[in-house]
């Protein structure tokens, strides 16, 4: 029997983190409101 793996694909800029065009400074990256909670929920639901 085949194993089913649940997956979700997200674009980070403007979805998970604030969109800062051409950003090359990792210290400027911050999660958008609710992004962390959403990622934790997906992990609890076995999404990879």
UniProtKB/TrEMBL annotation:
It comes from Flavobacterium cupreum. InterPro entries: HAD-like_sf (IPR036412), HAD_sf (IPR023214). It comes from the Bacteria. This is HAD family hydrolase. One of its GO terms (molecular function) is hydrolase activity. The keyword Hydrolase applies. The keyword Hydrolase applies. Keywords: Hydrolase. Transmembrane segments: none annotated.
């Amino acid at each position: 029997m085949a194993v089913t793996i649940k997956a979700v694909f997200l674009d980070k800029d403007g979805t998970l983190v604030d969109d800062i065009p051409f950003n090359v400074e990792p210290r400027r990256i911050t999660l958008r409101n609710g992004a962390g909670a959403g990622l934790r929920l997906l992990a609890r639901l076995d999404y990879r």
